[in-house]
Amino acid sequence: MIDVQRGRLDCFANMSEEPNNSQDVITFRWTPTAVVVTFKEKRIYDVRTVEAVEDQIRSILAKDPANMVVNFSNVDFMVTRVINILLVALKWVRARGGEVYLSGMNPNIRRVFKLMRLTEVFRIFQTEEQALADLENQEK
């Protein structure tokens, strides 16, 4: 869990644990440069869905991806707790020399990231393909 009250980010404290929520709210696939995570849900707002996102991201991070591309193209609305999960994932991946790219955001979600100044933290692309191409260019 993310304990914002105490200033702790122990969202992925037990990385070896498998997710305990069977609700698949994301899909993912491995490419030579990154794992691509795509949200399946249009609205990510209820506790069960957010916990499933957290569990599934934790499971992916336990496999130590070199980089991660998160595709928001299906998402119309999400709670800020999802942003906290992504920030923890970013910290995890960067600690291992990688990067987390975001793609496919609708204007409303992109506006939230801009207002929170997260456009300075994450690399954001229009499409998943653009994000993967940038990662491939970084590898050269």
Describe, in plain words, how this protein is organized in 3D.
The protein is α/β, with parallel strands linked by helices. It has one domain: Transcription Regulator spoIIAA (2-Layer Sandwich). 37% of the residues lie in helices and 21% in strands. The chain has a five-stranded mixed beta sheet, sandwiched between helices. The chain has a two-stranded antiparallel ribbon with strand order 1-2. Strands 5-7 form a two-stranded parallel ribbon. The protein starts with a strand and ends with a helix. The relative contact order is 0.17. The N terminus is likely disordered.
Could you write a compact summary of the structure shown?
The chain is α/β, with parallel strands linked by helices. It is 37% helix and 21% strand. The strands form three sheets. The chain has a five-stranded mixed sheet, with helices on both faces.
